[in-house]
Amino acid sequence: MKLLIINGPNLNMLGKREPEIYGTQTFEDYFTKLQFAYKDTELSYFQSNIEGELISKLHEANDTFDGVILNGAAYTHTSVGLGDAVASISTPVIEVHISNTFAREEFRHHSYLSKYAKGVIIGFGLRSYDLAIENFLMKD
Questions:
Q1: Catalytic residue among 22, 45, 75, 116
Q2: Which residues contact 16 (CB under 8 A, 6 or more apart)?
Q3: Whether 45 is catalytic
Q4: What does the domain layout of the chain look like in residue ranges?
Q5: Closest CA relative to residue 2, chosen from 89, 86, 65
Q6: Rounded-to-integer distance, Cα 43 and Cα 1, Å
Q7: What is the rounded distance in angstroms from the CA atom of residue 5 to the CA atom of residue 69?
Q8: CA-CA distance, 22 to 4, in Å (whole number)?
Q9: Closest C-alpha among 36, 27, 32, 33 to residue 8
Q10: Residue 108 in contact with residue 82, Cβ under 8 Å?
Q11: Hey, CA dihedral for 107, 52, 118, 89, is it positive or negative?
């Protein structure tokens, strides 16, 4: 199984940014733990604060990966283009969010990605990524 994790804007600041919401661990440290926990799964990671780079990475992932785990961060709620990119690829995408977006500001209650995602995992902290990986590894 070959999976790509894509993180959007400001997620490079995990561990420093709003620890009361996002915790104190960097994503890079967490990604190392994921690689150790899922040794039989080829995990790749990409982060960008630039919307077009996220869209291009989704296009590149098409038919190259078995699945994509996408945390679009703030672009989830603003980017029609990112939603269109998810819709345009055949590789399944699971949308994840670290915080419970429905317990936050009203604008975070809408996602341009969810309609096109295989599923959505919200509010389980960094464990949201584990849950997405587990879903891809399940035998249907």
A1: 22
A2: none
A3: no
A4: 2-137
A5: 65
A6: 8
A7: 5
A8: 21
A9: 27
A10: no
A11: positive
Contacts of 118 (CB under 8 A, 6+ apart): 67, 92, 93, 94, 135
Query: Of the residues 45, 97, 112, 129, which is catalytic?
Result: 97
Can 129 be counted among the known catalytic residues?
A: no
pLDDT at 112: 87
pLDDT per residue of the chain (140 residues) written in tens, 0 to 9? 999 999 999 899 887 867 776 667 789 999 999 999 999 999 999 999 999 999 999 999 998 999 999 999 989 988 999 999 999 999 999 999 998 876 676 877 789 899 999 999 999 999 999 999 999 999 76
The pTM of this model reads 0.92
3-state secondary structure 19-77: HHHHCCCCHHHHHHHHHHHCCCCEEEEEECCCHHHHHHHHHHHCCCCCEEEEECHHHHH
Q: The CATH number of 2-137 is which of 3.40.50.9100, 3.40.50.720, 3.40.50.300, 3.40.250.10?
A: 3.40.50.9100
Residue 83 near residue 113 (C-beta atoms within 8 A): yes
